[in-house]
What does this fold into?
Amino acid sequence: MLASRCEGHVEPPEFYRGREQTYLKHYFLENYLARLVWNVGSFRDEFVYFDGFAGPWRSESDDFEDTSPVIAIRKLTELRRGLAEKGKQLRVRCIFVESDPKTYPDLQRAVQIADEISVETMNCTFTEALPAVLPTLGRAFTLTFIDPTGWTGFPLRVLTPLLQRRSGEVLINFMFDFINRFIDAPQPELEKSLNDLFGGPGWRVLLERPDREDAILDFYRERVRAAGSLRYVTATRIKKPEQDRAYFHLVYVTGHPKGLVEFRKVEQQAAEEEEKARLHREQENRIRSTGTGELFTVEQTMEGGFRSYGAERAARLAQAREWLRGALKNRASIPWDEALPSILEIPMVWDKDVKALVKGEQEAGRLSIRGLKAKERVPKLGQGHVLVARHMDADP
Ligand SMILES: C[S@@+](CC[C@H](N)C(=O)[O-])C[C@H]1O[C@@H](n2cnc3c(N)ncnc32)[C@H](O)[C@@H]1O
It folds into this structure.
């Protein structure tokens, strides 16, 4: 996979001290782009990266190296080259939109690093840009990145034509912490702006729910799914620096099961990065207060597995098991191409977990797999494999 062979362009975590959430967002963007474009190169001849809220924003680098436009241009250039070496000619086009006229000249300067890929900039709002951009996309596979500073500027009714386009994916920074702080306020303008975000009312009842964060996010996911023709909508959480709660969620919309597999792989890598950054911080604090070094490095400590995600992963894996058992209770069989992406919509559940789950259920006699060839053990996408229910009511 190219993702692992290519060098990263995101500045190291130390560079982002105090804004680790931005590091993780950039890490996620770069690594997901690598996986996506490498796949797209095998079935399309044009890829468009459409960044609707480009910035640059709060950069601490003279060359804007710590901003998403520069990270994306560097990565896409490298990917285009890598594909060309394999004999695949992928045209790459980037469109960057920035509404603030004071920031726009910086954007124009930042994108000058592009030479091998086409880059366009627009000084207008995303809402103004989208109707102009959509007709130019043709059959190109498009990743749209929506990275706002709040929750306005991308009402669901504006996003709808984009979500109805099958040849693409959308990544939205859902600013949960910010939304959560204002969502209880009764002011009518606020109510209207949240109605715009969610595509109508209906969200107020969620505010009393004990699982408020999941409830709000699931509500948004379902609205986004219903608005478009892209079937899968999931999210991954990015925590506040030095705190164990969400800063934002990256909401990911795709029509492709393989997209979910890749998204969750990057989530796993990003979770490791997050854990590593936290352990480094804790170790530095300990060394500072005791004045003595430590025997084990952070990397050695991590060999024992995830600490911060243990309980959450266990709960999510239980949710996955419940989904599978429930689905096979209601239906005699489920195609793998439907089961895998449906389970991978659950955050923190990874491809290997789903395979282990299916193996366990198979060994317990609860399901069998139809369509495997002689030497195949695990189901694969696109092969017509089917999970078939067996003795489901024999077990609790
Ligand atoms: C969070 S920053 C983007 C950061 C950038 N994606 C990164 O990671 O480096 C959001 C940017 O969107 C711009 N912006 C705000 N509202 C906008 C709108 N309605 N349309 C387009 N850009 C907007 C802001 O001026 C700001 O520069």
